């Protein structure tokens, strides 16, 4: 068994879990693990066993996961097993591993190409580049998580990687085909997203079909997540039904929904009677579509969190509060602790104290002398996907989580309130079976209790940008999503064209005070800024930002779809735009936008942004 930090590791493994953990390092295994069977714990224990008891070098071990959230969880849990040795293991998403290969072996690597072009280039490097082959020859074991979600180009990439690994390099693949819901987006119900039908064989099918790759299958059966009899039956019996292709037929989705109702701890909750404010931070409110999530969040005036695609990685407000006017190249621990004591202590409420915050900074941009390199810190935090050590897991403030099933995949909560969709229609039996798997994923997020309700089944529309909108039945107003990634930029916070230095300072000061509270803003169109909307605190309050043209363009697209582009115009103001505290935006030292900003932000690169999550009503008026 695992020898390092034995006290931190669960020792009561069942026989099936122990077999996976202690299988020889050179083995290639596919582990079928349903919800609640301890997959993440076993994956981490497998890595810990390999690196501490099987003499596998941690730096020669890769862990590949599908989401950044899973990466963060695995990293934290693995550290509790084997301590600092875990930092040597390459734990990252598929895209991060791909970029590491691309940037490390292609001098012309750029992030400007399309996703498809970048992945295709990495596959070529795997096939033909001798330096990549040398790097792979050092790899002793690869663990792949959530493999059921790997289709299309990601499956192409991982398949090629496995083929190019040395024959004595072990591979452990964890998967649950009952949770394979990649083909549907969280915006649609019963309609496949974009190119899902063209994605081809999933990775699991490919690995099993090629006997030369040498994969064997192991199964984890025992359920540990819950003691609820109904949930256990959902996790086991319903999972068998979902996997049984002989049961897939017309009406299977409705049958699955009814089975979930029967096995839930409580049922009958009506969407129209539900208030987000009635729930706690232990609760996860699950909806099928993002429009329903936005509607629920819009009418909640208490702190809550969103789990929804389209909202970028959130950096905590304390970063900008501490460093917005910090212009030195390095910061020492003593100086940082002084900043924290003066600006953070008793004023905002991070989830951790100054010592842990400092450790996060050191891990991301530490120097040998024990200080933090601010230029390196900005480069890391200014990336589209900043380090998970410093990002927040959800978008918003402490409180209940409101999200879609897709965005909550791989996550769990003590109590889940699942609003089941109704009236879904499907073009094929395969589509209906996949949507039944979506229901299964939603129902298996619960650890303690599952409450099932009915959604109101309203349908929102989605623009090309991904923004959701929904017209009122009377046709007089349209609810439009505000707060998506890209709606608020550095220029829209402290830009010289948008703000005087004094006004920028006033806006930033307000956001520092409102870092942990819900604030209701008003949008006001500014003709001097091409009718972009200023974000104001009530009537006549300070302006804390300017919404980018993304929103304005989308409003005109809505009018185009309604055939009113020439007869109507977007409103001059919009009320009830809710902000869930503040977040940090960081610009890298080489970002061209810096020259457009006021000081001190043009030099520091750190600024606060309102964390807006809103679905307000826009009234489009006829032109005079």
UniProtKB/TrEMBL annotation:
A biological process from GO: recombinational repair
Gene3D superfamilies xrefs: P-loop containing nucleotide triphosphate hydrolases (3.40.50.300)
GO MF annotations, alphabetized: 3'-5' DNA helicase activity; ATP binding; DNA binding; hydrolase activity
Annotated source species: Spiribacter salilacus
Binding sites annotated in the UniProt record for ATP: 33-40
UniProt-listed InterPro entries: DNA_helicase_UvrD/REP, P-loop_NTPase, UvrD-like_ATP-bd, UvrD-like_helicase_C
Protein name: DNA 3'-5' helicase II
Keywords of this entry: ATP-binding, Helicase, Hydrolase, Nucleotide-binding
Domain of life of the organism encoding this protein: Bacteria
PROSITE patterns documented for this protein: UVRD_HELICASE_ATP_BIND
PANTHER family for the chain: ATP-DEPENDENT DNA HELICASE SRS2, UVRD / RECB / PCRA DNA HELICASE FAMILY MEMBER
Keyword Heme appears in the UniProt entry: no
Domain (UvrD-like helicase ATP-binding) ranges: 12-478
């Amino acid at each position: 068994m695992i020898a390092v930090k034995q006290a931190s590791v669960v020792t009561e493994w069942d026989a099936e879990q122990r077999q996976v953990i202690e299988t020889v390092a050179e083995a290639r295994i596919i582990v079928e693990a349903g919800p609640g069977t301890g997959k993440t714990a076993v994956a981490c224990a497998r890595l810990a066993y390999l690196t501490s008891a099987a003499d596998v070098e941690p730096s020669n071990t890769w862990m590949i996961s599908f989401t950044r959230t899973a990466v963060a969880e695995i990293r934290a849990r693995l550290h509790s097993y084997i301590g600092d040795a875990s930092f040597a293991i390459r734990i990252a998403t598929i895209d991060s591993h791909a970029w590491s290969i691309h940037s490390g072996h292609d001098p012309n690597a750029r992030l400007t190409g399309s996703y498809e072009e970048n992945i295709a280039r990495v596959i070529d490097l795997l096939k033909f580049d001798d330096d990549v082959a040398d790097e792979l020859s050092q790899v002793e074991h690869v663990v792949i998580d959530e493999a059921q979600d790997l289709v299309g180009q990601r499956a192409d990439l991982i398949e090629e990687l496995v083929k190019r690994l040395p024959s004595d390099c072990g591979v452990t693949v964890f998967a649950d085909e009952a949770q394979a819901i990649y083909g549907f987006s969280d915006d649609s119900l019963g309609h496949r997203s974009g190119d899902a039908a063209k994605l081809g064989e999933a990775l699991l099918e490919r690995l099993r079909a090629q006997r030369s790759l040498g994969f064997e299958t192991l199964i984890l059966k025992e359920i540990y997540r819950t003691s609820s009899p109904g949930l256990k039956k959902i996790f086991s019996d319903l999972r068998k039904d979902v996997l049984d292709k002989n049961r897939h037929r017309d009406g299977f989705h409705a049958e699955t929904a009814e089975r979930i109702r029967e096995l839930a701890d409580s049922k009958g909750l009506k969407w129209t009677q539900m208030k987000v404010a009635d729930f706690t931070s232990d609760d996860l409110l699950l909806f099928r579509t993002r429009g329903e999530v936005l509607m629920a969040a819009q009418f909640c005036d208490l702190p809550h969190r969103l789990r929804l695609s389209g909202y970028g990685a959130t950096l905590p407000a304390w970063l900008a509060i501490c460093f917005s006017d910090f212009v030195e190249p390095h910061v020492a621990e003593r100086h940082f602790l002084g900043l924290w004591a003066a600006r953070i202590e008793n004023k905002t409420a991070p989830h951790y104290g100054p010592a842990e915050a400092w450790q996060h900074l050191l891990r991301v941009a530490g120097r040998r002398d024990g200080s933090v390199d601010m230029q390196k810190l900005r480069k890391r935090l200014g990336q589209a996907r900043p380090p998970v050590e410093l990002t927040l897991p959800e978008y918003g403030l402490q409180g209940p989580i409101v999200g879609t099933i897709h965005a909550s995949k791989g996550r769990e909560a003590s109590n889940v309130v699942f609003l089941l969709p109704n009236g879904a229609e499907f073009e094929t039996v395969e589509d209906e079976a996949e949507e039944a798997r979506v229901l299964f994923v939603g129902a298996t997020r619960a650890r303690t209790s599952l409450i099932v309700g009915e959604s109101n089944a309203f349908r929102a529309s989605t623009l090309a940008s991904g923004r959701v909108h929904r017209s009122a039945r009377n046709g007089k107003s349209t609810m439009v999503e505000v707060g998506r990634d890209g709606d608020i930029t550095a220029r829209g916070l402290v830009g010289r064209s948008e703000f005087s230095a004094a006004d920028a300072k006033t806006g930033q000061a307000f956001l520092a005070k409102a870092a942990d509270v819900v604030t209701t803003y008003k949008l006001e169109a500014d003709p001097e800024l091409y009718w972009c909307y200023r974000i104001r605190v009530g009537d006549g309050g300070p302006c804390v930002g300017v919404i980018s043209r993304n929103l304005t363009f989308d409003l005109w697209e809505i009018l185009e779809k309604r055939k009113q582009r020439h007869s109507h115009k977007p409103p001059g103001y919009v009320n009830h735009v809710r902000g869930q505290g503040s977040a940090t935006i960081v610009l890298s030292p080489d970002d061209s936008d810096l020259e457009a900003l006021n000081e001190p932000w043009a030099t520091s690169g750190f600024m606060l942004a309102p964390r807006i999550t809103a679905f307000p009503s826009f009234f489009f008026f006829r032109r005079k």
